[in-house]
């Protein structure tokens, strides 16, 4: 009888060992799959563009009581949007959206919509942002210790080739390159959007201009 008990213990131990091995194998397989998914996402990635949607200014009315605006950002096939602000033509968002960048030459496209519950959302204008000035400033790779906080690296003026409502500056602020801008919306009777852009290199190293030459 004792021999049977010993045998059962041996069988249980073998089963436990096998289950543990299977669990380890599944864990390794899942780790490999996760790595493959990450590699797929990172393939061709040049950097990250952080866009802070600050506010809207004098946006168009789409309803008698105002509008319920939200902002959509597009970069290539990537799309992000802000929250909806109820009954406001001067909404404050202060929301940061981060887009992955694989082609630095692509413009950032912005659209504003009025949220409707029972019908299609109404367009409230659009604009495009050339991110080249910001990326070129980052690519200069200046010595951080030589830059004072708030230093202007370069400036862009409004022209027929851009949607700027006022002069825009790429600045060194709190240890980072940032560009504030106010965009005049197109294809609408009125409206402007204030943004702040920030570039993050990925992987760390040469700036985005170096990536465009590969």
UniProtKB/TrEMBL annotation:
GO CC field: nucleus; plasma membrane
GO molecular function: GTPase activator activity; lipid binding; metal ion binding; transferase activity
One Gene Ontology biological process: abscisic acid-activated signaling pathway
Subcellular location: Cell membrane; Nucleus
Domain C2: 30-147
Entry-linked PROSITE patterns: C2
Keywords assigned by UniProt, alphabetized: Abscisic acid signaling pathway, Calcium, Cell membrane, GTPase activation, Lipid-binding, Membrane, Metal-binding, Nucleus, Transferase
Family matches, as PANTHER family: OS07G0108400 PROTEIN, PROTEIN C2-DOMAIN ABA-RELATED 4
UniProt family annotation: Belongs to the plant CAR protein family.
Identification of the protein by name: Alanine amino transferase8
Naturally occurring in which organism (per UniProt): Zea mays (Maize)
């Amino acid at each position: 009888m004792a021999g049977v008990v010993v045998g059962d213990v041996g069988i249980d131990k073998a089963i436990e060992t096998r289950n543990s091995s299977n669990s380890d194998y599944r864990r390794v397989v899942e780790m490999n799959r996760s790595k493959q998914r990450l590699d797929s996402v990172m393939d061709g990635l040049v950097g990250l563009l952080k866009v802070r949607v600050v506010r809207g200014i004098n946006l168009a009315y789409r309803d008698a009581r105002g509008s319920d605006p939200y902002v959509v950002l597009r970069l290539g096939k990537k799309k992000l949007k802000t929250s909806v602000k109820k009954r406001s033509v001067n909404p404050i968002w202060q929301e940061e959206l981060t887009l992955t960048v694989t082609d630095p030459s692509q413009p950032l496209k912005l659209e504003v919509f009025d949220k409707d519950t029972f019908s299609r959302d109404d367009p409230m204008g659009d604009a495009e942002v050339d991110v080249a000035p910001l990326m070129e400033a980052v690519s200069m790779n200046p010595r951080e210790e030589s830059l004072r906080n708030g230093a202007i690296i370069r400036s862009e003026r409004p022209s027929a080739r851009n949607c700027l409502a006022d002069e825009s500056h790429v600045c060194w602020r709190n240890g980072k390159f940032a560009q504030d801008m106010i965009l005049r919306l197109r294809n609408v009777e009125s409206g402007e959007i204030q943004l702040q852009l920030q570039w993050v290199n990925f992987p760390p190293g040469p700036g985005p201009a170096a990536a465009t030459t590969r």
